[in-house]
């Protein structure tokens, strides 16, 4: 494709995307295709001769679109939303067009410095503790997902618990077994991270929750004390601000105080709910954050940014870099050795990295702080309104506290009735919701975080 052809097809593609957004409500939110349908529409073998771009775009309409669940549809209330604002899409396109790989400061200084700046901006917008800023002891980095953020936090915790020895000797040699703690409502990525980081699923303690599905600090204290008394080493606690099932907010301050008595690393997973702290009236969700070691929220969930962009901060970057840095000869360079620059390869699992900061930079500049706050307040208001409708309806009841932009409710006739309502709504195509189980009972979830959702 020549630059001129790229201009032509690129404009056609941008038009296609803008048209898609304009007609998105014409599609059923959830894809209606049967398993295997998409592949069956496409040739079994790759083309021998080059094909025209128009032919590919035609297949997008014919085959891909029917096979999509439309996450940007205003009636998408399933799981948690994912961002997709126009500025973020343009930022992603630009990152692809530039095609740089920002593993080291030296491999593209702008990729590193824009990222550091944008994460400092975001820390300011969320009013995060000063230690998380790059001017303090810590700093921020963009990970692909909250799962990766939890994993690198656990790796840093492991390294700190063993005084730097686990990287060299592995987790099992010469050290007492290490333990990790999270509430029973923590995301499954915590267990996955515990496995990958070498703690193992059995080392993960599932801490009981209170009636509002929040981790109980007294139960955490009991579990940590018991492990310590049995010669195990409590290494990390993952607190969740906005659990996946019901957006319960774990009491971060009390958890951090308990963890502090054992010298355990505290990571806060605020994947969805962290965005709420853009508005001062919601900052209570972060109470105690100045006591924790690391924190993550996903702009790609509620903050209008297209997947993937997960913002991760540490209070002390030294521990993280110690856990993740290995320097082979072929990456040595003067800038890194001067100590004056950040090399983000040392803050994540892979070596290579995309210029993801561009989309976040475009989002923050396009909406401005006031636009972002307005979006959060609008969604919170819609959520409150929806909750009031449920409350007022004799056939339904709200089953968990509504903390941010998710309402959990059920039909008063029980689980089968609730499931039937969900199936009927999803079959109708105008809205899509998913479920969870709370206290052993089926609960419908309505998440309200799509840019286009209106009353
Ligand atoms: N943590 C929480 C609380 C979540 O709700 C989710 C996903 O919904 C995740 C982690 C995983 O997010 P990611 O897809 O960014 O790994």
First-to-last CA distance: 45 Å
Strand content: 5-15%
The poorly predicted ranges are: none
Oligomer: single chain
Question: Percent range for helical residues?
Answer: 40-55%
Order of helices and strands: HHHHHEHHEHEHEHEEHEHHHEEHEE
Q: How many distinct beta strands?
A: 11
Any idea what the radius of gyration is? 23 Å
The largest β sheet comes out as: 7 strands, mixed
Q: Which hetero compounds are present in the coordinates?
A: pyridoxal-5'-phosphate
Mean pLDDT: 96
Shape: globular
| Secondary-structure class | alpha/beta
Q: Taking strands numbered 1, 2, ... along the chain, how are they ordered across the largest sheet?
A: 1-7-6-5-4-2-3
Specify the number of helices: 15
Can you offer a commentary on this structure?
By secondary structure, the protein is an alpha/beta fold. 41% of the residues lie in helices and 13% in strands. It is built from 15 helices and eleven strands. The strands form two sheets. A seven-stranded mixed β-sheet has the order 1-7-6-5-4-2-3, with helices on both faces. Strands 8-9-11-10 form a four-stranded antiparallel β-sheet. Helix 4 (86-98) packs antiparallel against helix 14 (357-392), helix 5 packs parallel to helix 14 and helix 6 (146-161) crosses helix 8. It is globular. The mean pLDDT is 96. The structure holds pyridoxal-5'-phosphate. Pyridoxal-5'-phosphate binds at residues 80, 145-147, 187, 189, 240, 242-244, 269, 271-272, 298, 310. Pyridoxal-5'-phosphate (PLP) binds next to helix 6.
């Amino acid at each position: 494709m020549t630059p001129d052809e790229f201009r032509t097809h690129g404009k056609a593609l941008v038009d296609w995307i803008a048209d898609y957004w304009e007609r998105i409500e014409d599609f059923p939110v959830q894809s209606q295709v049967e398993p295997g349908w998409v592949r069956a529409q496409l040739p079994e073998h790759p083309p021998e001769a080059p094909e025209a771009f128009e032919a590919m775009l035609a297949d997008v309409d014919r085959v891909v679109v029917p096979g999509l669940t439309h996450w940007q549809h205003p009636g998408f209330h399933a799981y948690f939303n994912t961002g997709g604002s126009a500025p973020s899409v343009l930022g992603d396109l630009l990152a692809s067009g530039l095609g740089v790989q920002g593993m080291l400061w030296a491999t593209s200084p702008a990729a590193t410095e824009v990222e550091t700046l944008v994460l400092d901006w975001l820390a300011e917008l969320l009013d995060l503790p000063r230690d998380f800023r790059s001017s303090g002891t810590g700093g921020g980095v963009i990970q692909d997902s909250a799962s990766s953020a939890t994993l690198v936090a656990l790796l840093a915790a492991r390294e700190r618990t063993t005084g730097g020895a686990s990287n060299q000797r592995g987790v099992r040699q010469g050290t007492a077994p290490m333990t990790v703690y999270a509430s029973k409502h923590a995301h499954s990525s915590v267990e996955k991270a515990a496995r990958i980081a070498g703690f193992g699923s059995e080392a993960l303690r599932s801490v009981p929750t209170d009636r509002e599905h929040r981790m109980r600090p007294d139960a955490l204290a009991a579990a940590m004390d018991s492990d310590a008394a049995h010669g195990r080493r409590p290494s990390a606690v993952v607190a969740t601000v906005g659990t996946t099932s019901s957006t319960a907010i774990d009491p971060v301050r009390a958890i951090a105080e308990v963890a502090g008595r054992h010298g355990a690393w505290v990571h806060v997973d605020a994947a969805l709910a962290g965005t709420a702290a853009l508005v001062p009236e919601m900052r209570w969700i972060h109470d105690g954050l100045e006591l924790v070691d690391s924190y993550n929220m996903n702009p790609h969930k509620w903050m209008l940014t297209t997947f993937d962009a997960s913002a991760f901060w540490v209070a002390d970057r030294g521990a993280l870099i110690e856990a993740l840095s290995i320097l082979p000869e072929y990456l040595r360079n003067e800038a890194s050795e001067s100590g004056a620059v950040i090399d983000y390869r040392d803050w994540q699992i892979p070596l290579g990295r995309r210029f993801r900061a561009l989309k976040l930079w475009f989002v923050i500049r396009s909406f401005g702080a006031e636009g972002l706050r307005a979006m959060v307040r609008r969604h919170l208001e819609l959520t409150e309104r929806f909750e009031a409708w449920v409350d007022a309806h004799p056939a339904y009841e709200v089953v968990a506290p509504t903390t941010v932009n998710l309402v959990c409710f059920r039909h008063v006739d029980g689980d089968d009735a609730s499931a039937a309502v969900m199936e009927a709504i999803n079959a109708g195509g105008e809205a899509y919701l998913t479920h969870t189980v709370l206290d052993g009972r089926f609960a419908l979830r309505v998440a309200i975080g799509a840019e286009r959702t209106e009353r």
